[in-house]
TrEMBL record:
It holds the Pfam family DAO. One of its GO terms (molecular function) is oxidoreductase activity. This is NAD(P)/FAD-dependent oxidoreductase. It comes from the Bacteria. Keywords: Oxidoreductase. Residues 12-394 form the FAD dependent oxidoreductase domain. It is an enzyme of class 1 (oxidoreductase). Its EC number is 1.-.-.-. InterPro entries: FAD-dep_OxRdtase, FAD/NAD-bd_sf. SUPFAM superfamilies: FAD/NAD(P)-binding domain (SSF51905).
Length: 424
């Protein structure tokens, strides 16, 4: 299928995840014409596969102003987008299981309060009120009542549907192949169905961003972490909170099912790309050494074939069933009432990660007209409402509503970044 060429001056957004869909919606509010290009279906990538946490607690201080703004928007979005996506403001409960973790929590509680987060160290009675019957040993408990969770796929599709109702052209099943530039500025996007002309291109392509930006002469440091998630059968109401502890994270959906994981981390599949970028990512690997595992598998051959010109689709990420088993075992031990709960299904997603685990949100001077919104390192779902506001501002050349200077593209080339400093 060949695409009709659109009017020059319009924006093309690459990526139908929650960032791309939310940016499209915000551009409608600016009255700007836009086309959203997605290689699969809306939300089929990481945006529809994450835990669904909307969490201020435990984040890097650099992200907290954006996350505070995003959390305020989340409470209004179902009405604004005229859609239901199971938004629950049930708080976030984080449990430390050793003395070092408890000390990090005490330090972060002060940082959080300085930024206006309603976070506090709580005692055993309050933990039992939040998750009745919890038997997980811990050394400290940190709770932020204003945090919440939502269904990722429904929220992503709600944004895309609202954008489409506002006039955005949504093209699913069209893979972006290259960013076109001439005379020092972007001119459009080459897709497998034709070329879309544009004066502004937004790269919100998640795991495909490094590959796409290379076509514009740019080198984005980006590694992929394969994260595994499981879902249980429906159980009786347990908690409205999202819960995090080393080796276990979970939330309960309105239908009673629990979304469960091993509490962060995942597998890094060894490829040529991984090795090329190893130096920049060493501090991040050290920071997450207990949670990340390097795997040698077919991803290396797939990467090599694509680098030598083969047009190959991204393979479906496969869950690591050892992680499913471990998280389910830990859940049953943590909540004895769930000792016989069964896992209904499991899935995996590709988390696009940067060396400092902070996103890239920037309008680049060269090529002019290119806006980058990627590298969210597992935090994009929660941040999306505020990120989209700032990206839309960058598209139209307005001052961003939320400060994005920390997230500039050039920080990696400048060496102006540090190891991740989030505690969850």
């Amino acid at each position: 299928m060949h695409l009709a060429r659109q009017d020059a001056g319009a924006a093309v957004i690459i990526g139908g995840g929650i960032i791309g869909a939310a940016v499209a919606y915000e551009l409608v509010r600016y009255g700007l014409t836009a086309t959203l290009v997605e290689r699969d279906a809306i939300g089929r990538g990481q945006s529809g596969r994450n835990w669904g946490f909307v969490r201020q607690q435990g984040r890097s201080p650099a992200e907290l102003p954006l996350m505070r703004a995003a959390t305020r928007r989340w409470g209004e979005l179902e009405e604004e987008l005229d859609a239901s996506f199971d938004w629950v403001r049930g708080g976030n409960l984080a449990l430390a299981t050793d003395d070092d973790g408890a000390e990090r929590y005490r330090t972060w509680a002060g940082i959080g309060r300085e930024h206006g987060v309603d976070t506090a160290l709580i005692g055993a009675a309050e933990v039992q009120r939040i998750v009745p019957g919890l038997r997980l040993p811990y050394t400290a408990a940190l709770y932020a009542a204003g945090d919440g969770h939502a269904d990722p796929l429904s929220a992503t599709r709600a944004y895309a549907s609202a954008a489409e109702r506002g006039g955005v052209r949504v093209l699913c099943g069209h893979t972006a192949r290259a960013i076109v530039q001439r005379g020092g500025r972007v001119r459009g996007v080459v897709t497998d169905g034709g070329t879309l002309d544009a004066d502004v291109v937004v790269c919100a392509a998640g795991s495909a961003s490094r590959r796409l930006l290379r076509t514009a002469g740019l080198s984005l440091p980006q590694n992929l972490v394969r994260g595994t998630v499981a879902m249980t059968e429906p159980v009786e109401p347990l908690t409205r909170a999202s819960v995090w502890a080393p080796g276990l994270a979970f939330r309960q959906r309105p239908d009673g099912r629990l979304v469960v994981s091993t509490g962060g981390g995942g597998e890094v599949d060894l490829t040529l790309e991984t090795m090329i970028q190893a130096r920049r990512f060493l501090p991040a690997f050290r920071h997450n050494a207990r949670r990340l595992r390097l795997r040698v598998n077919g991803a290396a051959l797939h990467d090599l074939r694509r680098r030598f010109g083969a047009e190959l689709p991204d393979p479906e990420p496969r869950p690591t069933y050892g992680r499913v088993r471990d998280s389910m075992l830990r859940l049953r031990e943590a909540v004895p009432a769930l000792s016989s709960v069964r896992c209904e299904r499991a899935w995996a997603g590709q988390i696009d990660s940067t060396p400092d685990a902070l996103p890239v949100v920037d309008r680049l001077p060269d090529p002019a007209g290119l806006v980058v919104a990627t590298g969210f390192s597992g935090h994009g779902f929660g941040l999306a409402p505020a990120i989209a506001e700032s990206v839309a501002d960058l598209v139209v050349g307005a001052p961003p509503r939320h400060e994005t200077g920390t997230f500039r593209f050039s920080r990696f080339a400048e060496g102006d970044f540090k190891a991740p400093d989030a505690i969850l």
